[in-house]
Amino acid sequence: MTKRLISEGVQGKSLSEELKLVRAAVNDPAAFAQLYSLYIGPVYRYIISKVGETKEAEDITSQVFLSICEGLPRYRHNGYFAAWLFSIARNKVADHFRSMVSDRKKEVAYMESVRTDDPLSTIIRNEEIERISALIHVMDEQDQELLRLRIVAELTFEEIAQLTNRNMEATKKRFYKLLSKFRQQRELDHD
Amino acid sequence: MIDSQQFESDQDIRFNVLAAFRVRDPDPVFIERLKKELIGQFKARAESTQGKSTPSRPYWIGQVKKQLSPLLWVTIAVILIISLIWGINNLLPRAIPGGSVKPSPTPTASAATTPATRSTPSLDKAIFYIVEEGDTLSSIAEKTNVPQETLQSLNGFVLQINQLNPGLLMVIGFNDQSPIFYTVQPGDTVQTISDKAGISIENFAALNRIGLLESNEQTPLPITNYILKPGLKVIIGLQDNTAIVNEGNPKDIITLSEVDLDCDGSAEHILGIESPEIEYFNIKPQLAAIMLEKTSSAGFQRVWEQTANELGVSYMAYTLFAPGNCNQFLVIIGHQGKESVNVYRWDGENLINVLAIGGRFLFEGSWMEDVFGDYKSSPNILFLGEFQQHADSSKNIWILRGYQWNDGEFKLIEEKRVETSGGG
Asked: Quick check: A189 pLDDT over 90?
């Protein structure tokens, strides 16, 4: 895992640059490859944060980009390419969980894991992470998803608002509130 | 707004959140592999869109034509006519896919995963229909007397990529054979489905006519480059109809259970024909047909049979629901993406359908009993669970239903909704 600054990565590119790239990527494989290398990291990291397993994350990531490749000629750029991309990623993850039930064995195993095994608690590396895990665990799904979209997928607040059909300011406020919860916890621990 | 010290501290929080979510970077090998696959797909898409605008007759034909003498032209015409007649007689029904499908250019991938015993189904016995001007799926269904849904299943891939243009070949059925269908699941590829079905990529492509243009020419693309949309029905094998109706073929028929379904003191036979295993579902045995025999003076007598094909599913599985001292109900689950559940009761003469439900079901009474604690001691309760997904995909919702056999019918007595968090 790489530690990165917010100013790097996906958010480093400006809107017009992205627009140019998305337009070019419809017909130019080199531009498409560039778009791919820009988003493969965030998309994969977001998906693995949802499904946990490398193989499954790779399968779903492949599906997302194959859909993008197929759908790009029909995509109309509204300034929120990443929101479009991540809406596909979210759908594919949802499909994945849906398809899991056709397999009885997996399905039962999944139910068992829901009941007995808390995936967040199995990988705790140190106390700080443990405390953050615990905090995340008690959050509702919407807040967890907000953390994922902002920190794991590295989307801007505008993109998150577009993707989740919510107000941008409210999204921002909510995120900083979650962050301050973590900060408070840390101060409590240090005292 | 954020000072540098706080920014540092926020970066640590971010780092820890990533760790808490178990986020890992993608494997560089995977990144490269997917990139190659995407560029392949990209080029395929570009070629297919270009193909529509280019003239159908290649440029070189015109060039050759100018330089040939009339005598040579007559010779070529004769050869063409002969080969055309030969083609119609010999090639059309069977060799369209089988003969013209080129081997996959990725032999290493298929060789590594090819089990030694693969069957080699082909379209030898297929019955074709050639689309005429103005045809629609419903008009073809009317003309051929084949239901629209079957037409769609038989020609899943062909209809995914082609319009119903005049001249398009469609499979409308088979002589003495029944197709075994499979519904494409997310993540499936030509390779994985061929492996699951135990047939070669070439056989799979031939059955579904993958890689053939509308004009029945083979495209230069590797078969593995084709994308099969989840939900699409594809043919993964063919079974001889004679095996189902012919009782003189006992090695194909297995005895699944000997149970006293009607509690009269003599056992009934539940028989089945195994269908090719699709490892994906992990249910064994997977059945292409289920039969019931009752005890008669002459031994056993076949009284009922159901094939997966008749039920419109890729295969069936069965279980017995035993509310009393003897088993009274035969529960048949048909699998094809969604599941259909049929519960039958044997009255000594007939097998009567007493409950039929469609949806996403599972049969895990053990954990459902915990939820239905109140009914643990109640008799004759059949638990069925249905899986649903929350609209924003963040929650998995399980609808658990308990049916009780009472007064000659199954009644829904309890429905519970259980939510589990999705994905996290």
From this structure: no
